[in-house]
């Protein structure tokens, strides 16, 4: 078989996109809770606190907070070996800077992880996934302030100790490189007039990288069996032509991602990263001992998201621009695209797996991959999402080649949004990824009832045969 015994088949969600119950049992306000609904053509807005009359999709989301037992039972029916979710930071520390945690929040995750383990499902936990405590944003300016390293470490210390016998797999920050693309979404960064935005972003990123390294070291001290990884958005880029200028542009595009993964996996800033900062007049403020902290806090594995590839062109007349997953490039004439314009490239998945593994030689974990699409419920209640099955089938085929032919060390595969949830980018419900349909629309109306799509039964067979029957 292509995949080793114990390969972690499963699915992935984020707490802020599925839990709802945004102000229940002592939970504080997070950055996700002030994000309004948007669409493909209309960006989400982040308001200053909660504004009456605005619709905030995360406030109810799919009410996973109250329905997790029902959902995990469905995951078990599919045969999940693992379930990737996140902890809502503000359930544990409502404002982010408290010394003592909120016991009700801790109990919820105790119950959630116990429910997973009851079915033999390993929790895979992202510690911070696009939901900063809003109190840290307003009081400290979020990750621009080094104080957040200590607040984050206090949070990690609490959850590592509390769940040390329930959770083995951890990731420190979701898609950490997005701080350089859309700084508010992952890191709660707001800019002041006249600020050097790159200076702010990369200083905040340095604080997150220090926090991550310290968390890795702390976690290993608490439980030597912990596997603690990073998580990056991985957008494989191609040169439009064999013009060396296109190749250089594509390499520079990829360097923006490797800047982060290099520090996580190698434990230091590369010479290229230092030159990049220098060219952009960014002077990182590093404290004594930071270099040692990064060296000692290298990750055990690289978690990453893969949805699409992009193309870079040096031709100024090449205006056929395409965007997706918070990034942009020019259209690839060899690829089709999803309804949201994301270019579909299964072979690019194999290329990405090889590029990452060749570069770092540590285990990889694909923790996000999938197709956002509009699903139609037939009169008999069935949902025939053959397009999703085909997308995943082709990607798993290429994943198998990377493992079987190329020798990539891959820990697991958790398709994104295994149950329909709120889209992070647009706040929509109609952009669905799941194997399980949730009856809710873009306006927040619906019963929230769950139903199985055709892909549910297909993915069950994939897991049952360890990827042999596709």
Automatic annotation (TrEMBL):
<protein>
    <recommendedName>
        <fullName>6-phospho-beta-glucosidase</fullName>
    </recommendedName>
</protein>
<dbReference type="GO" id="GO:0016052">
    <property type="term" value="P:carbohydrate catabolic process"/>
</dbReference>
<dbReference type="InterPro" id="IPR033132">
    <property type="entry name" value="GH_1_N_CS"/>
</dbReference>
<dbReference type="InterPro" id="IPR001360">
    <property type="entry name" value="Glyco_hydro_1"/>
</dbReference>
<dbReference type="GO" id="GO:0005829">
    <property type="term" value="C:cytosol"/>
</dbReference>
<dbReference type="GO" id="GO:0008422">
    <property type="term" value="F:beta-glucosidase activity"/>
</dbReference>
<keyword id="KW-0378">Hydrolase</keyword>
<comment type="similarity">
    <text>Belongs to the glycosyl hydrolase 1 family.</text>
</comment>
<dbReference type="Pfam" id="PF00232">
    <property type="entry name" value="Glyco_hydro_1"/>
</dbReference>
<dbReference type="InterPro" id="IPR017853">
    <property type="entry name" value="GH"/>
</dbReference>
<keyword id="KW-0326">Glycosidase</keyword>
